[in-house]
Amino acid sequence: AAAAARGLKSVARAAFSWKPTGRAQQTLAAAVSRSGVGLHSGARATATLLPARAGEGRYFVVEEARVAAEVGNAEPQSPLCTTLRSGSGGARVRTVEHLLSAMEALGVDNCRVEVSGGDEIPLLDGSAQEWVEAIRGAGLCAAEDIGGQKLEKLAPKIDEPVYLRKDDCFVAAFPSSQIHITYGIDFPKAPAIGCQWFNTFLDADIYSSKIAPARTFCIFEEVEKMRGAGLIKGGSLENAMVCSMSGGWLNPPLRFDDEPCRHKILDLIGDFSLLARNGSQGFPIAHVVAYKAHHFCHWYYNCLIRGP
Predict the structure, then answer these.
(1) In a 3-state reduction of DSSP, which class is residue 292?
(2) Residues 138-174: tens digit of each pLDDT
(3) pTM
(4) Using the 8-state DSSP alphabet, how is residue 87 labeled?
């Protein structure tokens, strides 16, 4: 991690505190599952979401091992996806960010996710829309601990500004009374994408309509290089938007003119969900501003604001 962080510059660790929300922790009211290919493995897998007790938080079960969805289990160098691993050399689960994004935004605070058929969460259509539909179909209810008690949900709150920067890429958070996200991307070699910014507040309805439908994307001219590195074996025109540097989008139409930028916010929410502990909220109450950020920056930033 130290080597990977070379070149990153940040302010001192933020003043960071947990605040009561006045709401009980939630879990699913029923089990629900979805199956599909994994983006990188290409293998068909199934993720089954099950209710969990208050205080257990979100966690995956893969190869009979439990992998908590916490930043301490995130691998710092995981190309083109977020990977969680239970300790050094332990079981891993890959490409968790879309599912975690939906659970964080919709308030699934405690959940057991059983993964079968591989170690990767199904990509589905490349967005979080099917996960939102699955969660809403199952419904939510107040979670109870082993003693039958409900627990209050806490939320992390940024009390002082903090930022992380590498070259012209950065992630910053400023005190705010509500969650506010501003995100920018820039792909000068692909004019059809170009420079995009998206600004939004965040709640379950905004997420479901404006963020969740945004699909993952890639540059056509980079596909063979990524496949040569053993990545995106399950990627296709059915589960990703593909943009050519010279020819534009190969599989239109887009769901939004700025769909790539919105998808980066989807990823950001999923990665920041790893700040959660014991059924708490993960995404901080703050105005988060990011530009040309990526999964590693999201992970490192979580470490920065979380502390030991």
Answers:
(1) coil
(2) 999 999 999 999 999 999 999 999 888 888 899 999 9
(3) 0.93
(4) S
